[in-house]
Write a structure and sequence with these properties.
Layout (H helix, E strand, L loop, with lengths): L11 H16 L2 H5 L24 E5 L5 H16 L3 E6 L4 E6 L8 H13 L4 H4 L21 H12 L9 H8 L4 H16 L46 H8 L6 H29 L23 H13 L7 H18 L1
Helix pairs in contact: 6-7
């Protein structure tokens, strides 16, 4: 096989082999390069990877609400035991209401302090210890999403949060689903998309292709129409001139002549106006009382019209019909049918003889 220096010219045989290798590499299926072999797992980070440990101490602290104090006191020995396996110290301060984690001289994993920080955050946010301690594993991560400031209306916030919590408190763990739900997009749409993607990932041919043609496109429809106001205000026509200035009390008194009257005369006029109003109200009240004593109008009595000779009922004919109906039983044969039946019976008897 021809060899060449790094900076020297490449022989013809070497060039042809290089081209063949390049073509083979290009002809490889991209899906084989992207797929992960079955059963492959990333090796755990051990002390051999970092034998000298960490240079400086790192620590994180978080506060917890008062109602979590009793639960944290019970499970705190388990938290310390789980963190001591990774050489991380944990302290619980019940006076300040805080939890603190910090590295030690024996800590060799530089990322374990981040996982310990997530552990105390999950415990402070009402996650059980059995679920929160799983964050210390390498293949598990968490994402804390603050949804308190996404919706202003409290009632809407509670309804949309309930969609995320789900039955028996099974919280959805997809960030996009959470954010879309708080934007009034139901999680069922995103769940359907995830289910379709899971099925498409099983197909080796479609694994390296675009899935946009298979995914559903959900359009947001605003069903609720805008409510029209009960009182519609009609805009007045624009005029460049300002509205006329309203008359003051002095102007009204000048126009009516009251301004020039004495105080005693003005008082007398007010008393007369009050008495006139009282008399009018009294008369109205008296009229309403008198209405109860007014008898209602009676309808005129109409005389019964004499029955005409044409519309008189034939009583005798009706009696005869009733008698015939009584004599005739329901389902009885007529006289002609009875005669025919008797003749047929006689013929049958003669044939038998």
């Amino acid at each position: 096989m021809a060899t060449s220096k790094a900076n020297g010219p490449v022989p013809a045989a070497g060039k042809s082999e290089f081209r063949n290798q390049k073509q083979k590499q290009e002809n490889r299926d991209e899906s084989e390069l992207l797929t992960v072999p079955d059963g492959w797992k990333e090796p755990a980070f051990s002390k051999e990877d970092n034998p000298r440990g960490l240079l400086e101490e790192s620590s994180f602290a978080t506060l917890f609400p008062k109602y979590r104090e009793a639960y944290l006191k019970e499970c705190w020995p388990l938290v310390q035991k789980a963190l001591n396996e990774h050489h991380v110290n944990a302290t619980l301060d019940l006076i300040e209401g805080s939890m603190t984690v910090c590295t030690t001289k024996k800590t060799f994993d530089p990322y374990i302090i981040i996982r310990a920080r997530d552990l105390i955050k999950l415990l402070a946010r009402s996650v059980s210890f059995e679920q929160a301690v799983r964050i210390l594993q390498d293949d598990i991560a968490c994402d804390i999403i603050k949804i308190g400031s996404l919706v202003r209306n409290k009632e809407r916030f509670v309804k949309r949060r309930q969609r995320l919590i789900g039955p028996k408190g099974s919280t959805l763990k997809v960030r996009k689903v959470v954010l879309d739900t708080m934007k009034n997009i139901h999680p069922i749409y995103n769940i359907k998309t995830l289910m379709i993607k899971r099925e498409l990932a099983k197909d080796s041919e479609l694994r390296s292709q675009s899935w946009e043609r298979f995914l559903p496109q959900f359009k947001h429809k605003n069903v609720n129409k805008r409510k029209e106001p009960k009182k519609k205000t009609v805009k007045k026509e624009y005029t460049p001139f300002p509205p006329p200035q309203p008359e003051s009390q002095i102007d009204k008194e000048l126009a009516s002549g009251e301004y020039f009257l004495k105080a005693s005369q003005k008082k007398r006029q007010k008393m007369e106006a009050i008495k006139a109003k009282q008399a009018e109200a009294l008369s109205k009240r008296q009229e309403e009382r008198n209405k109860a004593f007014i008898p209602p109008k009676e309808k005129p009595v109409l005389k019964p019209k004499e029955a005409s000779t044409e519309t008189k009922i034939d009583v005798a004919a009706i009696k005869e019909k009733v008698k015939k109906a009584k004599n005739k039983k329901l389902g009885a044969l007529t006289a002609e049918e009875v005669k025919l039946k008797m003749e047929v019976d006689e013929k049958k008897k003669k044939k038998k003889k």
